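I'm stuck. Please check this protein.
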Amino acid sequence: MSLEERKEKLRDELERRRRGLDAATVARAAAEAVKRLEAIEALRSAATVAGYWPIDGELDLRDFLRRIREEGKNVCLPRRRPGNATLEYELAEPERNAESLDGALGKGGFGVMEPVGGRIVDAADVDAWLVPGVGFDRAGNRLGRGGGVYDSLLDGAPGLKIGVGYGCQLVDEIPAGERDRKMDAIVTEKETIWIG
């Protein structure tokens, strides 16, 4: 079985697990994961945080992102490069003059909420990344949705890379290739795992 076939098989299994979580478990998991994130000193001291707007049952950190933005941190999100036919992404800090963080976003590629305007942020200027995934392992490997968006954004980025997901998304081994970017830490509702 090829690397991509192994990834796809595991992706299907892990997405079934995530979809099987009930609403109360999802809400409780988000609250517990946020407590763990708040305990990470490097994240507390970060000036610029790259986050994500959840889709398809991903762990929901929106309230956390809204709060740290109100506290003065620069929060940036991925967005599809305007006018680009390929799936190339950039980071953008949503406009501060919008009524709220939500008000500075609009539907982009795949129906994902992303900044409609705002300053483009160089990945080298990001102090901490909150990275969603379909699955993670204790070696820091991450399984994404298959588009390579985060692997591309994280390529060469120096900031702390924190994979964020549910405990049920943690497996013994994620199949990984040379283009797959490792996380520095994994945070779930159950634990914080520091990699090597």
About this structure: The chain has a mean pLDDT of 92. The first helix runs from residue 3 to 19.
